[in-house]
Amino acid sequence: MGIVVEVGEGARAPVLHEVGGNRFGWRLNVNLSNWAANQRFYVGDWLYFGFDKQKISVLEVNQTGYENCVENNYITNITRGGRDVFNLTVARPYYFISGRGYCFRGIKLAITVQDAPLLPALPPDDFSATNPSTTLITSAAATTTTTTTSTSYYKWFNHFLITIIIVSIANYSAFC
């Protein structure tokens, strides 16, 4: 499935990372450390957690909570419907665990989020000056193709549109 989004000059399209590499990757017998080592996480990206909400949860914790599988005093309970998204809004380390003892069995994730790199702007021409660019995100390890526009309005609108799309996908998935 691909998501088409608008992108402004120098902007990088956010990526929706399917945790564990597939729709239901937040589970036992998935090496989440190896998966994370092959990803690049940037501010504005999203994590998609797919799991059995009857058994497994998703909690954002601090480093000590991650290292010792302590679910008390979590930062954020991400668990909603078993197909949940989390926006990476700040460049910093993030730590996630599953409660109910599943953290001790390997369902935990540590990632480091970096500031999003700016893409080089293409030289303006008549076409790009009047048309917003389009980016197609094709997978969790997305590759993107981008053209640029010079209006800052598109940067703001891009973030707004992506937020609506991702929230809609999460809500739709909860009913499937």
From TrEMBL:
<keyword id="KW-0472">Membrane</keyword>
<feature type="domain" description="Phytocyanin">
    <location>
        <begin position="15"/>
        <end position="115"/>
    </location>
</feature>
<dbReference type="InterPro" id="IPR039391">
    <property type="entry name" value="Phytocyanin-like"/>
</dbReference>
<feature type="transmembrane region" description="Helical">
    <location>
        <begin position="156"/>
        <end position="175"/>
    </location>
</feature>
<dbReference type="InterPro" id="IPR003245">
    <property type="entry name" value="Phytocyanin_dom"/>
</dbReference>
<dbReference type="Pfam" id="PF02298">
    <property type="entry name" value="Cu_bind_like"/>
</dbReference>
<protein>
    <submittedName>
        <fullName>Early nodulin-like protein 20</fullName>
    </submittedName>
</protein>
<keyword id="KW-1133">Transmembrane helix</keyword>
<dbReference type="InterPro" id="IPR008972">
    <property type="entry name" value="Cupredoxin"/>
</dbReference>
<dbReference type="GO" id="GO:0005886">
    <property type="term" value="C:plasma membrane"/>
</dbReference>
<keyword id="KW-0812">Transmembrane</keyword>
<dbReference type="GO" id="GO:0009055">
    <property type="term" value="F:electron transfer activity"/>
</dbReference>
